[in-house]
Design goal:
single chain, 276 residues, OB fold (Dihydrolipoamide Acetyltransferase, E2P), 5-stranded antiparallel β-sheet, 5-stranded mixed barrel
């Protein structure tokens, strides 16, 4: 009988800490860490996609005896290598507090990075991710305090009003709202906050009455401070902008003084003269 061939590893996930081995690392920690790295390798945005697409799943193919190192094979190895390499570059840029950041990649990656940081804290270790054959040179390392440090450098929080179009509102267990806002490719997933469950349901119901309409939502925003890209938005209330008649607005401006240009024979010549 022919021996079944094992898939070649694409990358390794390693727990590094005093006395750690496959026998001492809790199974839950291994599962959570591999799931987080799978999200990073697939490029999945948890706000956009509930599960990793089947064609981008990652499987465990081997465990190194004597060390907490787990060999993983990706169904789309090229994408996995590219995405994990980009995460390494992004984390290096954040540590240096300089360079450009792909905001959408950061938003998609921040949850799994937080999960890895929490795993490192609970198990008093660090989590390394390295390509196969390059285990001595990890693409990136996440330690127990890394998420807090990254969040402190990247995010800023405040109250604001965001105007956009309501795309969806509701939810069986976690009531949320989706908004389409200007200069943003992806929809903005918004949390809902109220003083009680009943008030929260009522706010969601009112938002649902304005599907595909423009509203101005008031709430708490977390931005990526370098670019003012909205990471999270919690809606407390909203109102609909009242748009006036543009023709009346233009007429109001003319009456406020702009009609003085009507008396100028050659406005372009006058402006050129004033600039001299």
């Amino acid at each position: 009988m022919a021996k079944k061939q094992t898939a070649s590893p694409t990358f390794f996930v390693r727990f590094v800490g005093k006395g750690l081995s496959p026998a001492t690392v809790p199974l839950r920690a291994v599962n959570d860490a591999l799931s987080a790295v799978q999200d990073l390798a697939s490029g999945r945005d948890p706000f956009e996609t509930a599960q990793v697409p089947p064609e981008k799943l990652v499987g465990l193919v081997d465990v190194k005896a004597g060390s907490a190192s787990y060999a993983c094979a990706a169904r789309a190895p090229g994408d996995a290598i590219h995405n994990l390499s980009e995460i390494g570059t992004m984390l290096t840029s954040l540590e240096a507090d300089g360079g450009t950041i792909d905001e959408e990649r950061l938003v998609a990656a921040i949850r799994p990075i937080r999960a890895l940081s929490q795993i490192a804290k609970r198990n008093d270790c660090r989590v390394e991710v390295a390509l196969a054959g390059q285990q001595r040179h990890p693409l990136f390392v996440v330690g127990k305090g890394d998420f807090r440090r990254i969040a402190g450098r990247v995010f800023m929080k405040g109250e604001a009003t965001i105007t956009g179009e309501i795309e969806r509102a509701g939810g069986a267990t976690d009531m949320r709202c989706l908004m389409r806002i200007p200069n943003r490719r992806k929809l903005l997933y918004c949390d809902i906050k109220a003083n009680s469950v009943a008030e929260k349901k009522e706010l969601v119901r009112k938002l649902g009455q304005h599907l595909y309409e423009q509203v101005s939502a008031v709430g708490t925003v977390i931005w990526i401070h370098r670019t003012w890209y909205v990471y999270r938005f919690t809606i407390h209330n909203f109102l609909q902008p009242r748009l006036g008649n543009p023709l009346k607005a233009i007429e109001f401006l003319r009456k406020s003084g702009l009609n003085a240009w009507d008396a100028v024979a050659n406005p372009e010549s006058l402006i050129r003269e004033l600039r001299k």
